UniProtKB/TrEMBL annotation:
GO molecular function: receptor serine/threonine kinase binding
Membrane-spanning ranges: 46-64
Protein name per the record: STYKc
Keyword Transmembrane: yes
Sequence segments annotated as region (Disordered): 1-29
Record-linked Gene3D superfamilies: Ribonuclease Inhibitor
Organism the protein comes from: Seminavis robusta
Amino acid sequence: MEPFDIDEYRDEDDDDNNTNETRPLGVEPKRNPLTVRVFGLPLRKAAAVVIVVLLVMAVVLSLTSSSHDKASSDTSVAASTTPGPVRLFGTSYHVASTTDVYRHGHRLKGPFPSEIGTLTALTVLELYHGALSGNIPSEIGLLSSTLNVLVLKDCGSLNGTVPSEIGLLTALKVLRLEDDKLSGSVPTEMGLLTALEELLLPNNQLVGSVPGDLCANPQLKEIRVDCPPDPSPVACACDNVCQCTSHETHEEEEGQT
Ligand SMILES: *[C@@H]1O[C@H](CO)[C@@H](O)[C@H](O)[C@H]1NC(C)=O
C-alpha cells in the first residue's frame, strides 16, 4: 500500500471525469495518463485482484478434493492423521459421530483394527460370529469415557491376552468376551470397572480369577465363567453373581466355582 496522498486521490477523481486528459510527463512520473480502468481500478491492480481471487479458489478447491480423496480411498492413513472417516470391517465410520457398531458375519475377518480407538463417541461395540484373528488391540482403552457395552463373542480366532487397558473402560456396563481363543490371566485391571453389571468370560483359555474388587459393585448382576472341571477354569468368588457355563454340554448351570 502506498501512503495515502490527498493530491493523488484528487487526481484519480479527475481521471474519472476526464479520461482523455493528458498530463505533461515528469509532473507525475508514477502515473500513466492512459491507464485503462477495470471496475474502477487501474488495469494492473484489477489484474492482481483477479489473480489473487483465482489463487484462493485454486487452494480451496485442492484442499476439498484432497480431503475427499483421502476419505474415499485411503482411510487407513486418514484415520491416523486426520479426524476423517475410519474404515473397519469393510465399512466406513465417521469418527466423531459413530455411537454404535454392531457387526457379525463374513466381513468380520482379519486382524482386529487398532483404529477402533479413534471412534471417540462409541457407546456400543458388538462383534459376534466372525473370523477375526490376532489380539484385542490395546487401543480399545481409548474408548474409555463413552463405551457402555463391549461384546466380542465367537469372533473366530481372536486370541492373546485380554489387554490391561480394558480397565480404562470405566463406563462399561456389559463386557462379554465368550467363545473366543483368549488366553492368559484375567487382568486385575478388570477390578476397575466400577459400572459393570454383566461380565461373561466362558469358553476361552483364560486362567486366574475374577478380581474381587468387582464383588463390591452393588449393580453387578452376573459374572459367568467356565464350570469346572474345565482344564483352566477362572475362579469367581463374588457371592450370588458368579455363574458358570459348561461348554461340553452347552448347558448352563448355576454354581460357585
Ligand atoms: C494368535 O493366532 C495367530 C494366528 O492367527 C498366531 O500366529 C499367534 O501365535 C496366536 N497367538 C497366541 C498368543 O496364541
